[in-house]
Amino acid sequence: MDRRHAMKTLALGAAALPLLHRDAFALDAAAAAPAATPAAAPPAPTGPFSLPPLGYAFDALEPNLDAQTMQLHHDKHHAAYVNNLNKAVAGRKEVEGWSAEQLVRDLARVPEDIRPAVRNHAGGHVNHTLFWTSLKRDGAKRPAGELAAAIDQAFGSFDALRTKLDAAAAGVFGSGWAWLAADAKGALQVVPSPNQDSPLTQGLVPLLGLDVWEHAYYLKFQNRRPDYLAALREVIDWDAVSARYRDARKG
Ligand SMILES: [Fe+2]
Q1: Distance CA 237, CA 95 (A)
Q2: Rounded distance, CA 117 to CA 203, Å?
Q3: 199-219: b or e for each residue (b if 16 or more CB lie within 10 Å)?
Q4: Which of 41, 71, 126, 211 has minimal CB crowding within 10 Å?
Q5: Considering only CA atoms, which of 202, 211, 209 is closest in space to residue 107?
Q6: Cα(58) to centroid of ligand 1, in Å?
């Protein structure tokens, strides 16, 4: 590549950067940075929370969800939520022994000075843990048992639920999630949330979350969120979602 071509390529690359979401850009920048000084990097924070394994290969959901996105999403983004959550709660006796779910559910009782960090990072940890365990290659294509009946009651049909979920996901402005959630009586609703907010904070039980942060799809789908959602819906394991509802009903 001659110098003029190289400069042009760099200029085009720089022009494209504002199109990327902030979190996607941060990862790209980190990936592009020279890894010359590993000894100077701070040690990984330790704490009560750890990154759960993905549970399947990064390429297990190809071609719907590409391996590179899955690896970055799990190993970098989810890991960052865990690390930052550990930093936020380090040395804080007020929340010692709390689970990540409890931190999100009882957010109002978390000390005010760490509440924003806990909201973002415990939320990110809990939301992604649920997300990974909702996906499967060749998983159940339809809900079963109590959940199937509850869906019919709340939305009229499974297809109507999927349409409503996709509309909620498509309508999230910026980063966030669309959820299928149950209230204390088992009634279902579709709710969007911004950033890493969880239905748990609203007293709901999340059953399925559609991650519409750009980090979930930008590498493969760029700005085509509806295409990502169409691919994502084919790898949702409705057996896992049905089991979650069954557990919620048991209390
Ligand atoms: Fe995500």
Answers
A1: 34
A2: 20
A3: bbbeebbbbbbbbbbbbbbbb
A4: 41
A5: 202
A6: 15
